[in-house]
């Protein structure tokens, strides 16, 4: 009943994307109340205090309900609307970096896939993040609209091989079905059903064996009575450094690359991941921006069909071994075993390999999907995996409705030499472009790397200007851990620059590394370094002077801009000065202002720097008077005059500053009761017209008064 209500709410109100149809009751169906009870029980143990959200029904190719995907809000807040969830998960995905420890990564959301049949494992998988209903459906709907028109709706989500397909229909009954990576499309259910049948036949997926069905029925009895608040987790050493790569070429080469990337990082096998590049993925129809070279090598050696992403199970272990051999590690071994009901889906081998510290490519043949495994959990018998889709890391149950496959890699033959690039790293965010370092043409940049106190003889440095697709030799230097790279002024501005470092010992390649993402080369000057006032802090007395680094000589002028609110500009300054004094009349008490600046050189204006803020914590001038001749300042005033002198009842000392914050004159009482300023500087020259500030009081801690000298 709750599912029907959710469908109505999403469809009638038009919030995001409607929920798909429920499907027909399958054989051995589990009633929804039982499924929901198990899901809530598991979720509260896994994410205490979580709030339930959308429940999405999954169907098989015949339209029978096979599972429910439950979503939760993990921080205890109410589950939001569709658009907010999509925005949140996109922001979270963009915050992932190459060094994110996914074991400790937390999302606002979590998902839990529960079977709807007693002849299937109860809890299929779970983890942080959301399902394809939020991560993929918006893009799929946009494609469906281009085919079927604007009246499309999500009619079904299929959970078959490879895992998920999304079906959209229109009011006229026309349909289009997309695979989750958009590599395949069908325009009728009959064609889709034929494809599923042929795919299962090719993969050897058939009806569940009686022993498997009995096993799952027993698992259901245990699951409904289990205390999920207690478990034991085992991870291989260094699992926190296991990489997460974007899906490219296929799930198996992506998983294999993550396994090889882990071995490269944690062990001294620095020739496995040499560099990263950007490639157009014809399967997904998008740019994959940070793909390691070993991912391509795995796809080639495993004979992956890169038009569909498919890899035969029998090619995985051999492919891993050959990739290691190709990179100069002939002593690698790969332990493989096929899991069936007869050997408890190779659970003993899984535990043995993880306990020994070996990563693996684990393939759920029933889902025709491969993942990179780094640990396990008992008593549930779940594997900790890095997925190749929209959930970075998950727990998957070790058994499904068919076979599985284990390919655990035993590395051997490590070199004492290794190398890790430290700077520049490029854009280190997941599948991101444009957030890397910005380096300036004409400057000298120190490229740094770590050789872990085992230097080679020399390091060759290559550069790519097309995101790693082609490389050019840059220099060859001793392995000292750094290289002073002078970026020649003849170099053009580029947005897709990468570096690759190759370490050699006795003429042989021992290790290599490269920038994870792209960095930029610019000819215009970088934004100046801001100095004051400190960002986010109040300014308690005038004048408000914006200061930037005055030591740089690579630019000839500076442009300041100050605004309040969302874009109400109150002051601009363009000139040679490295400081900007904001007129007091544009300031407002207790108002927060924002400012930024950029620099100019012979090539043009550079980018603006970061936005800094300050709050006006003093009351700007409130009185304006004018008098010729002798004038007396009392309280906080804005004083205007053309000639004469200023008389201050200010104690023993006062200091005059100009609008740039520079000291103009120090005034002494010299035993008199009052201090006078004759509008001249320390050299006796009459000051020019403009704005001046007079700071007075004992220890110059008193009032600051403003004077405007007219022409």
Give a summary of the structure in a few sentences.
This protein has 711 residues and is an alpha+beta fold. It folds into 5 domains: 2-225, no CATH class; 233-410, Cathepsin B, Chain A, CATH 3.90.70; 420-522, Sandwich (Immunoglobulin-like); 530-616, Sandwich (Immunoglobulin-like), CATH 2.60.40; 624-709, Immunoglobulin-like.
Word description of this protein:
The protein has 711 residues and is of the alpha+beta class. The N and C termini lie far apart (82 Å). The chain contains eleven helices and 44 strands. α9 crosses α10 (316-326). β40 (653-658) and β41 form a beta hairpin. The model is unreliable at 1-15 and 622-638 (pLDDT under 50). It is elongated, with a radius of gyration of 33 Å. The strands form nine sheets. Strands 1, 2, 3, 4, 9, 12, 13, 14, 15, 16 and 17 form an eleven-stranded antiparallel β-sheet that branches. It has five domains: 2-225, no CATH class; 233-410, Cathepsin B, Chain A (Alpha-Beta Complex); 420-522, Sandwich (Immunoglobulin-like), CATH 2.60.40.10; 530-616, Immunoglobulin-like; 624-709, Immunoglobulin-like (Sandwich).
Task: Label this structure with key terms.
711 residues, alpha+beta, Cathepsin B, Chain A, Immunoglobulin-like, eleven-stranded antiparallel β-sheet, 11 helices, 19% helix, elongated, disordered N terminus
Summarize model confidence as the mean pLDDT: 88
Task: Quickly count the domains.
Answer: 5
Q: Which structural class is indicated by helix and strand composition?
A: alpha+beta
* Largest sheet composition: 11 strands, antiparallel
The share of residues in extended strands comes to: 35-45%
Report the strand count. Answer: 44
Number of helices: 11
Global morphology: elongated
Query: Percent helix among the residues?
Result: 10-25%
Based on CA atoms alone, the radius of gyration comes out at 33 Å
């Amino acid at each position: 009943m709750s599912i029907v209500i959710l469908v109505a709410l999403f469809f009638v109100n038009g919030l995001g994307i409607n929920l798909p149809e429920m499907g027909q009751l399958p054989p051995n169906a589990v009633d929804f109340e039982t499924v929901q009870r198990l899901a809530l029980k598991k979720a509260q143990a896994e994410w205490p205090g979580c709030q339930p959200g959308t429940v999405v029904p999954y169907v098989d190719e015949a339209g029978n309900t096979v599972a429910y995907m439950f979503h939760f809000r993990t921080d205890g807040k109410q589950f939001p609307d569709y658009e907010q969830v999509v925005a949140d998960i996109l922001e979270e995905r963009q915050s992932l970096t190459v060094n994110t420890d996914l074991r400790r990564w937390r999302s606002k959301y979590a998902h839990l896939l529960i079977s709807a049949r007693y002849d299937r494992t109860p809890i299929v998988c779970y983890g942080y993040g959301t399902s394809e209903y939020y991560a993929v459906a918006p893009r799929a709907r946009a494609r469906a609209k281009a085919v079927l028109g604007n009246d499309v709706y999500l009619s079904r989500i299929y959970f078959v091989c490879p895992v998920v397909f999304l079906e959209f229909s229109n009011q006229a009954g026309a349909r289009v079905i997309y695979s989750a990576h958009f590599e395949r499309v069908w325009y009728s259910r009959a064609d889709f059903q034929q494809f599923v049948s042929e795919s299962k036949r090719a993969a050897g997926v058939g009806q569940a064996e009686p022993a498997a069905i009995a096993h799952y029925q027993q698992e259901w009895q245990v699951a409904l009575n289990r205390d999920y608040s207690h478990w034991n987790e085992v991870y291989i050493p260094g699992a926190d450094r296991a990489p997460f790569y974007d899906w490219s070429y296929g799930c198996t080469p992506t998983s294999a690359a993550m396994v090889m990337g882990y071995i490269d990082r944690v062990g001294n096998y620095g020739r496995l991941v040499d560099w990263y590049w950007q490639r157009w993925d014809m399967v997904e129809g998008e740019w994959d921006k940070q793909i390691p070279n070993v991912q391509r090598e795995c796809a080639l050696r495993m004979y992956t069909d890169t038009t569909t992403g498919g890899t035969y199970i029998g090619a995985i272990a051999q492919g891993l071994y050959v990739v290691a051999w190709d990179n100069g590690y002939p002593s690698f071994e790969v332990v493989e075993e096929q899991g069936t009901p007869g050997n408890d889906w190779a659970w003993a081998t899984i535990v043995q390999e993880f306990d020994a510290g070996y990563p693996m490519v684990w393939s759920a043949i029933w889902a025709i999907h491969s993942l990179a495994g780094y640990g396990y959990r008992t008593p549930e018998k779940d594997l900790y995996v890095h997925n190749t889709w929209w959930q970075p890391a998950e727990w998957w149950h070790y058994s499904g409705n068919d076979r599985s496959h284990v390919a655990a890699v035993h590395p051997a033959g490590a070199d004492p030499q290794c190398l890790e690039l430290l700077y520049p790293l490029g854009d280190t965010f997941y599948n991101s472009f444009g957030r890397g370092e910005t380096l300036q043409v004409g400057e000298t940049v120190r490229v740094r790397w770590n050789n872990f106190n085992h230097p080679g003889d020399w390091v060759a440095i290559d550069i790519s200007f097309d995101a790693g697709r082609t490389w050019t030799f840059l220099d060859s230097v001793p392995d000292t851990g750094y290289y002073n790279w002078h970026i020649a002024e003849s170099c053009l501005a580029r947005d897709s620059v990468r570096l690759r470092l190759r370490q050699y010992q006795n003429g042989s390649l021992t290790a290599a590394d490269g920038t994870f993402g792209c960095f930029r080369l610019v000819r215009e000057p970088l934004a100046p370094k801001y100095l004051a006032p400190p960002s986010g802090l109040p300014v308690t007395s005038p004048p408000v002077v914006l200061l930037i680094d005055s030591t740089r000589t690579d630019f000839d002028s500076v442009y300041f801009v100050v605004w309040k609110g969302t874009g109400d500009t109150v002051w601009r300054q363009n000139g040679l000065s490295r400081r900007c004094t904001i007129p007091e009349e544009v300031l407002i008490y207790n108002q927060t202002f924002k400012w930024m600046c950029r620099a100019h050189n012979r090539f043009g204006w550079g980018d603006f720097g970061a936005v800094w803020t300050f709050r006006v914590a003093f009351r700007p001038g409130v009185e304006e008077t004018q008098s010729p001749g002798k004038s007396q300042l009392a309280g906080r005033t804005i004083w205007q005059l053309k000639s004469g002198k200023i008389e201050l009842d200010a104690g023993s000392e006062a200091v005059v500053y100009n609008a740039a914050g520079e000291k103009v004159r120090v005034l002494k009482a010299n035993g008199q009761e009052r201090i006078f300023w004759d509008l001249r500087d320390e050299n006796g020259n009459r000051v020019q017209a403009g704005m001046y500030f007079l700071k007075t009081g004992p220890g110059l801690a008193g009032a600051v008064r403003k004077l405007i000298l007219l022409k």
